[in-house]
Design goal:
By secondary structure, the protein is of the alpha+beta class. The protein is built from 15 helices and 17 strands. Strands 1, 2, 3, 4, 5, 6, 15, 16 and 17 form a 9-stranded mixed β-sheet that branches. Strands 7, 9, 10, 12, 13 and 14 form a 6-stranded antiparallel β-sheet that branches. A two-stranded antiparallel ribbon has the order 8-11. A hairpin with a 5-residue loop joins strand 1 and strand 2. The two termini are 16 Å apart. It binds zinc ion (ZN). The site of zinc ion has 6 residues, from loops.
């Protein structure tokens, strides 16, 4: 006979409850390990794993989760975009659900844990709750999200964006997958889901039917390793300002024959811009913007014209600035424009910066952060907080749904086959997640 909710709304979990929850989470780890193994098997590409967004690898991972959830006796459903939902029902199905989730696609030749860890963690927590015969206070649902990685369609957060109604439906026809050339709508329909329904119906998820969103994700930086900590609580999803299609135009000229005053050197001009922007980065860091990042990911001369003895007449480059402070973004755009004008005047070149894109920083919900922090303390360690890169949680926060994130230590960065997450760290992340559900009165 299932229990009534163990913890009433507003009550704190007692030590006895935590003491029961912890071994149940541990007991779910063989299941988690098996799912990770199956994921690797169904999406191996010879070097790492490849889970194409709205395609084969992602679908194979969805099928693995669906089969394991059926074994556990959990409810399984999909939305019209093909996102997967696995539910442990509460007594009153009309109450907004609590979601735990992450994405099931990967970059090409990626690692087994980026995204997948958050879905497996959700399933492990549900398995633990099921093993204790807990009937949660409201539906607790794991969401396997499609299409988070921007590499496939040139835009990130497609699955969560479609579920939350944050991706304009016209994009179903103008986004094409880089490897197939087919549109997002064609991919959705080919998988047996319904792009027509996405155009006609209101969003599947909103703050009316989702009470909170929790995402566990591997940390993509080195901080937890450096500090020797298994998990962290995220404070904010960094915003960014990007120039994906920038050029500098000068004039190709003979390297030995043309004196400095007559040169229009695109490399020196673009290098000048980049170094000034690094100086801007130092300046805002010194002023307290400690979580800002600047990357010039592409910087190349024209291969048709370049050569050791040619003054370069054209540079193609990208600018990618990230920050947790909204005003930094405006200042970055202002500086880029100002420096470009100044360098144009000094070096007789022309910058064509192209369209700028970006998203504002998304602070995560303070009460969920506090709940995750309290869960860490209940488990015997002080919470460590840090800012994080872009994740689906940013979309839920944008939709006005209280959202929080648990980051798990991971060696060798992410988006590569060498991602290395220790299952003991993962287990602690799952424990924090499960305990936080109790702390926040969801169990
Ligand atoms: Zn990810």
């Amino acid at each position: 006979m299932p229990n009534a909710p163990l913890i009433q709304d507003g009550q704190r979990p007692d030590a006895d409850f935590i003491a029961r929850l912890s071994p149940a989470v541990s007991a779910a780890m063989p299941l988690a390990a098996r799912i990770f193994d199956e994921f690797r098997k169904v999406s191996a590409d010879g070097c790492g794993v490849t889970r194409q967004a709205f395609g084969a690898g992602e679908q194979a991972a969805m099928d693995v989760i669906g089969a394991e959830a059926a074994e556990l006796g959990l409810e399984i459903a999909h939305d019209a975009a093909g996102n997967l939902y696995v539910t442990l029902p509460g007594p009153d199905r009309s109450r907004p659900a609590v979601l735990m989730g992450s994405h099931l696609d990967s970059v090409p030749v990626g690692g087994n844990y980026d995204g997948a860890a958050g879905v497996v963690a959700g399933v492990a927590v549900l398995a633990a709750l099921r093993s204790l015969d807990i009937v949660p206070a409201q539906d607790i649902r794991v969401m396997g999200i499609r299409g988070e990685e921007s590499v496939w369609f040139g835009t990130a957060y497609l699955g969560s964006g479609l579920a939350l109604g944050l991706l304009p439906v016209e994009r179903l026809d103008d986004l094409t997958r880089t490897d197939t050339g087919k549109t997002l709508a064609q991919h959705i329909d080919a998988l047996g889901y319904d792009s027509g329904k996405l155009r006609a119906d209101p969003p599947h998820l909103s703050s009316r039917n989702v009470a909170a969103y929790y995402e566990l994700h591997i940390e993509q930086g080195p901080l937890l390793q450096e500090r020797d900590l298994p998990v962290a609580v995220a404070t904010v999803v960094r915003g960014n300002a990007r120039y994906p299609f920038a050029h500098c135009e000068g004039t190709n000229a003979h390297s030995a024959a043309v004196p400095r005053a007559f040169r229009r050197d695109a490399v020196l001009a673009t290098a000048d811009l980049v170094m000034r922007l690094e100086e801007f980065w130092r300046e805002i860091e010194a002023a307290g913007s400690v979580d800002s990042v600047l990357t010039v990911g592409e910087f190349y001369t024209d291969p048709e014209a370049h050569g050791m003895t040619t003054v370069p007449g054209r540079v193609t480059f990208t600018l990618n600035f990230g920050t947790t402070i909204a005003s930094d973004i405006e200042e970055f755009h202002r500086r880029v424009a100002h420096y470009a004008r100044d360098i144009e005047a000094q070096r007789d070149v022309k910058f064509e910066l192209g369209p700028a894109t970006g998203t504002p920083p998304r602070p995560l919900d303070t009460e969920i952060r506090a709940g995750l922090g309290e869960a860490c303390r209940a488990l015997g360690h002080e919470p460590f907080e840090l800012a994080t890169a872009g994740h689906d949680a940013a979309m839920f926060a944008k939709a006005g749904i209280p959202s929080g994130m648990v980051l798990v230590r991971n060696a060798n960065g992410s988006h590569n086959p060498d991602e290395a997450m220790d299952m003991e760290d993962f287990e602690e992340g799952c424990r924090v997640l499960a305990t936080a559900l109790a702390v926040r009165g969801h169990l």
